[in-house]
User: Fold histidine kinase from Streptomyces xanthochromogenes.
Amino acid sequence: MSPPDGSADQARPDPEGRPAQHRGSADALHTEQPKQPVQKHRTEEHARHEQPERPRTSRRRVFPLPFGSVRVATTLGAVAVVAVALLAACAGLLGVIHQGLVNSAERTALARADAVARVSGSGRLVDRLAVPDGEDSLLQVVADDGRILAASENLAGRAPVASFEPAAGHSSAARSLDLALRPDPHPHPYRLVAVRAKTANGSGATVYAGTSLETARYTQRLIVTSMIPGIPLLLLLVAAVTWRSTGRALRPVEAIRAEVAEITERDLGRRVPVPASRDEVARLSQTMNATLDRLEESMDRQRRFVADASHELRNPIAALRAHVEVAIAHPQLLHGPELLDDVIRVQQLADDLLLLARLDAGQSPERTNLDLCDLVRTTTARRPRGRVPVTVDASGPAPVYGNRGQLARVLDNLLDNAQRHARTTITVTVTDGARGVVLDVLDDGPGVPEKDRERVFTRFTRLDASRSRDAGGTGLGLAIARDIAANHGGRLAAAAGPGGHFTLRLPHAATTGTSPGAAGA
Assistant:
């Protein structure tokens, strides 16, 4: 197959599956002219269906940052976390120290109460119980009938200091009480321990021994007064360090933002700076540059597409203008078939451009399960007899999931291309393999050079620049065929010869994962 292009010159079905229209007769053109209202209605309906749908994107709820700044939010968050941690640490430290001092006072009081209980049991109990000099503590022995059997100097003449006793099965009990002892009339905290004892006559009594908790309270006040002034200073230090480190971390992000803000559609060659660090910001920069590469490539492709489309439309429109000018000046010289050919060419190019726009927008018509073998037989049978006969080898079922009109358009374009370059034979085969359904279109032409097997699918590509446009088509047929194949989850490629060889691979209907009645997007 000689250098192929991608345009079909024969009448073919509409890509949406509507019946084909004959384009080769002036009588047919004049026959449809009186039906203007119907055509207007169809045009409006066609326009409504052809409007590109906006892609649906999933939206996740986004909560706004406080003050609209990541830096401020990060700093406030760090300060809040450190403040909570410090307060929890201070509370835990105070609790541990307080409990330790209380336990120490309780052990001291318990030791003294045990000593007094032993003395009481031996019958050597005296009225005034001695306490260590310089230590704020107390001792009292209370009989079961409420009499004071003995007491320290600071409890002389006082009623029982407490009424609690050890529970059954326990040797002692402890309470924290505020007591006012002589000579100080103000109450002070004490850790009081009660121990059961026996008197000389065998009656029961309770020994109360207490140790002051002023040391525990003083230690707590000292810790609080020492730490509270340091907490704000520590929080200020945390805020300053977080503010500075966050600013340094976000500096590349701000550079990316500033660079992207300067990029316009006329200057897509600019790229964002990539920091030397191999962190998330560096990967963000690389992803952003890759996105800009794809965007620039897409814009360049669109510009080339518009330029090529304008160039392709220029010649047929100029020919139409010449025909009209001749018809105005010399009506007798008007040649209807030539004028109709130019109109058909412009119409065909406009249809191809519209189909490409819809494919680029990701639209697809309704799809169903169909037999590719049946489609090949039906399509080849309805085509006009071409210059080279077509042999079809499609016997078995080959189920695929797709749109019948678009897949027929792919086959039409491949056969038009083969008719243009084949010498004597064109063969179409369909095979149902393990990895999908394969359609092959072969001819005995010169074939496609290996270096051009991808370029032939570029839009408006004609490998033979010396050919006339009438012979070579518009250069869109193969591009449309590949886009339709990709839209169906398949792939169209130019294979090695001998001769021209194009292969279309489509997934099985059972592997598409879509119900037969589902509509396209």
Summary: Residues 6-13, 15-58, 465-472, 512-521 have pLDDT under 50 and may be disordered.
